[in-house]
Amino acid sequence: MIDDDRLEIRTLGSRRILKVRNSPNPSRKICTFTVPTESYISLDADGYIDMFEWPTWVPSELPLTKHLTNDRIAERIKTGEPADFVEEFPCHTQAVERAVKMVTEAAASVCGEDARHGFFLAMVESMKEIPEFQKKSDFVVK
Q: Is 99 within 8 Å of 127 (Cβ atoms)?
């Protein structure tokens, strides 16, 4: 929400961050992911803001904004500036693509969290046995 093109949505997102930070219950400040129930999400919504029921929202802050001070967020609300302070994270790197491939393979091969973790460990060990080439001249076919 804090990176939306619309000023009112950016302001709403900033206010929600401040609400979480000022919440008296410290356990609510840790962002935990839970799969939403069907009654929690409205698929008939016109925009992502209207997709879930705000009254049932459990306040939590994402790690992405933890480095910001309350003054910086309050300043954003007053000035309405875009969220240029949100760091850019590369999402299409070779490492990310490799992880996506591994998760896809694990989902097709095993069931359960423990089995998936074992699958990843076996894949990593297997990749360690493959020789690593830093440049083309290192690769010599015999």
A: no
